[in-house]
Specification:
Elements lengths: L26 E5 L7 E3 L2 E3 L11 E5 L2
Antiparallel strand pairs: 1-4, 2-3
Length: 64
């Protein structure tokens, strides 16, 4: 969800695919298979491994 509480992306991605989203920061993210996902925010790589819990799901806010 973005700052307006709109869901801007929901779904599963196939390996090797890319998804781009736009919205109003901050963004509340829940990323499954966090160790298998590459996330880039404003040209910088976001470390999902350090944000992932024991179940390999990362839940955090980006851009606040």
């Amino acid at each position: 969800c973005d700052a307006t509480n709109q869901r801007i992306f929901v779904g599963l991605q196939e390996p090797g695919t890319t998804a781009s989203v736009e919205g109003e920061p901050p963004f509340r993210l829940t990323v499954g298979n966090a160790t298998g996902v590459e996330l880039v925010w404003q040209g910088e790589s976001v470390d999902l491994v350090e944000r992932a819990g024991a179940n390999n799901v990362a839940r955090f806010t980006l851009g606040d």
